[in-house]
Amino acid sequence: VLVGRAMGKLQSKISFHTAKYRADGSVEETGPLRAVQQHGPAHTDAVTSVAALKPDLCVSGGSDKSVAVCSWRSGAALRRFIGHEREVTKVTSAPDSNRVFSASRDKTVMMWELHGTSGPSQHFPGHDLVVTGLAVSPDASQLCTGSRDNTMCKWDTETGECLGRAAISRNLVTHLCWVPGEPYVIQTSEDKTIRIWDSRELQVAHTFPAKQHIQTCCDVSQDGRYCLSSSSGSAGEGGEATLWDLRQTRNRVREYKGHFQTTTSCVFLPRGPALAPSIATSSYDSTVKVWDQHTGGRG
Question: What is the pTM of this model?
Answer without folding.
Answer: 0.84
